[in-house]
Amino acid sequence: MTDIHERTAFITGGANGIGLAIARCFARAGAKLALADLDAGALIRAKAELQDITQVETYMLDVRDRAAYASAADAAERALGPVTLLFNNAGVAGGDAVNRLTYELWDWYINVNLYGVINGLMAFLPKMLERGLGGHIVNTASGAGLVATGAGVLYTTSKFAVVGLSEELRINSEVKSAGIGVSVLCPNRVATDIISRSLDAASSAGARISEEQVKKQTMAGKALLQIGVSIDAVGEMVLKAVRENAPYIITDRQLEEMVKTRTQAILEAFPD
Ligand SMILES: NC(=O)c1ccc[n+]([C@@H]2O[C@H](COP(=O)([O-])OP(=O)(O)OC[C@H]3O[C@@H](n4cnc5c(N)ncnc54)[C@H](O)[C@@H]3O)[C@@H](O)[C@H]2O)c1
Questions:
Q1: How would you list the strands of the sheet with 8-12, edge to edge?
Q2: Is 117 near ligand 1, meaning CB less than 6 Å away?
Q3: With a 6 A CB cut-off, is 64 part of the ligand 1 pocket?
Q4: How many Å lie between the centroid of ligand 1 and the Cα of residue 268?
Q5: Which of 130, 193, 205, 207 is deepest in the core (most CB within 10 A)?
Q6: Is the pLDDT score of 1 beyond 80?
């Protein structure tokens, strides 16, 4: 899709990190922005930063909340016109050791990382199909949605599901014939505060994480900020991928050998 100008983009997790970088790039390309997030302070900052470039509306939204999602979707379209660019990007990382998993942790993870994406599709896709204005959907998964990386079973389960959902949606004949492209964003390491934000969000959601994991993840979070790719580089990759309707957006080459090994093992498992 090359006609980004004047289209309306709805971006979850749009107040920080990768979502904010997507907002910046699409604002510069002329899109109007609806930013949805849990983080009220960051929404205010994002709006202040971007409102001189384009029209920006912000919505306090927990992507797990279906009723609130439907209201935010309606409000965004009343204010900015039909949403034709959808970024299902909000997500959390971390979790706990496999012997300390609880149903609370599973529910929280799957509800944010997978149902958050599903709720976005349910709120917008039927209208996008019906209106025939074309458009593009980017679902944020992870490199951990392409191969098991040691990111933990909660994260990997949720992100593999987002990759599968996106691939199926992309080949769907109704979606294709409505001129709606689909890409899945599979970042590896991007310099954001996702780890500390996720620890805070887990505790507000009542999903308990052990002290030992909190310490481990806090250190990993600091390292991520030092070694990760910049958010603005990722935002540019997303803009290019939408323009070219690329299936996958991969942010560095770190997982290349692991993906090859996985693919080879699958191919070798085919019977003679
Ligand atoms: N940073 C990385 O290295 C990395 C790697 C792989 C995948 N990802 C994925 O990229 C996406 C964005 O992550 P990021 O690194 O920019 O993180 P981030 O923490 O900087 O941004 C995520 C945003 O989502 C919001 N959010 C979290 N839960 C929410 C909820 N329930 N409802 C609404 N908003 C919510 C947060 O408030 C935050 O503003 C996530 O899906 C994440 O899993 C990130």
A1: 56-60, 32-37, 8-12, 83-88, 135-140, 180-186, 248-250
A2: no
A3: yes
A4: 35
A5: 207
A6: no
CATH class of 8-268: alpha beta
Q: Among 18, 225, 231, which is best to mutate for testing ligand 1, by the most ligand atoms less than 8 A from CB?
A: 18
β-strand 56-60 against 8-12: which pairing, if any?
unpaired
Whole-number Å distance between alpha carbons of 2 and 244:
8
Q: Reply yes or no on whether the pLDDT at 2 is more than 80.
A: no
Q: How far is the CA of 18 from the centre of ligand 1 (A)?
A: 7
Residue 248 is a catalytic residue: no
Spatial distance between the Cα atoms of 83 and 48, rounded to a whole number of angstroms: 22
46 lines ligand 1 (CB under 6 A): no
pTM equals 0.98
Per-residue pLDDT of 28-68, as tens digits, reads 999 999 999 999 999 999 999 999 999 999 999 999 999 99
